[in-house]
Specification:
Number of domains: 1
CATH superfamily: Aromatic compound dioxygenase
CATH architecture: Sandwich
Number of helices: 4
Shape: globular
Strand content: 15-25%
Order of helices and strands: HHEEEEEEEEEEEHHEE
Low-confidence stretches: 5-76
């Protein structure tokens, strides 16, 4: 278990033994379905998506060459299309750096959700009295929220809180050197297609975890003010091939090269029991930036 998540697993009891065991069984069953049941969001494939989640080969991301980078066949508008079948997104730990009012930093409760300006699409800069900007390869995240109880209907007006580490593995508010910042955190409401869009940077890989992002789902922007109102907590995974492309070719990500080489989905303490529905589909390159898409199913 890595240094980032180790404290939470000891200090919090959010993942009770029975809940964790049930999740393991459910997600093991998903893996048995095979790739035929878990296709990506590439091109027109989204119209017949058998299960919610990202696309491509689980390990490599099933990418194709695009200049100096890697890409899938996903197009910018595909994520807005209808979804014919979906699964509930796995419930995951929020990690030790949620900034949602559930824990403290430097002796004070931290709740970035209450910050003026936290509802924004571009989360690369800090808000309020902070003024820092997170550097890195540009990344657009498009998250489509659907109801697994209503034939995968798009959920409009819900709110998604997204947060992740910097290119060098630090979390704003909590990590040394970033405690005075609140960048790479933001909230967006889903549009009429159930899509929430964020402009951010490609996350780094810190020791002990596969590259990932965190998210919480709320019923509305009005309720997205405290963890106590959340409907879902989950994490997003990234194709290995794309991570390698970014880390090996862009300055600022050098530490991620060795960190990624030392970890795998099989040994990651979050994704080791399955990650098919958490893997984003991604297109782009290191020169022009990337766009990642994923469908997130919730039981409402």
């Amino acid at each position: 278990m890595d240094a980032h998540d180790h404290g939470l697993m000891h200090d919090l009891k959010s993942l009770q033994d029975q809940e964790h065991l049930a999740r393991q069984h459910r997600r093991q069953a998903l893996r048995w379905l095979g790739t035929a049941g878990m296709v990506g969001l590439g091109g027109s494939a989204l119209l017949s998506l058998p299960a919610c989640g990202g696309g491509g080969d689980a390990a490599s991301g099933t990418t194709t060459s695009s200049g100096t980078g890697t890409s899938t066949t996903t197009t910018a508008d595909t994520i807005s299309n209808a979804v014919s079948s979906c699964s509930v997104a796995p419930e995951e730990t929020q990690g030790p750096y949620p900034g949602d009012g559930s824990n403290s930093a430097n002796g004070s409760v931290v709740n970035a959700l209450m910050l003026s300006g936290i509802v924004r699409q571009d989360i690369r800069t800090s808000v309020g009295s902070a003024s820092g900007t997170a550097d890195g390869v540009p990344l657009t995240m498009k998250l489509k929220l659907v109801s697994t109880n209503s034939s995968c209907a798009s959920l409009e007006g819900y709110a998604i809180y997204l947060w992740h580490c910097t290119r060098d593995g630090k979390y704003s508010i909590y990590s040394s050197g970033a405690t005075s910042e609140n960048y790479l955190r933001g909230v967006q409401a889903t549009d009429s297609n159930g899509v929430a869009t964020f402009t951010t940077v490609f996350p780094g890989c810190y020791s002990g975890r596969m590259p990932h992002m965190h998210l919480e789902v709320y019923r509305s922007l009005t309720t997205a003010t405290s963890y106590s109102n959340k409907l879902k907590t989950s994490q997003l995974a990234f194709p290995v091939a794309t991570c390698q492309e970014v880390y090996n070719n862009v300055s600022g990500y050098s530490a991620s090269i060795s960190n990624l080489a030392a970890i795998s989905f099989a040994t990651d303490n979050i994704f080791s029991d399955g990650y098919s529905t958490e893997l984003v589909s991604i297109t782009g390159d290191v020169t022009n930036g990337y766009e990642a898409t994923i469908v997130i199913g919730i039981s409402v």
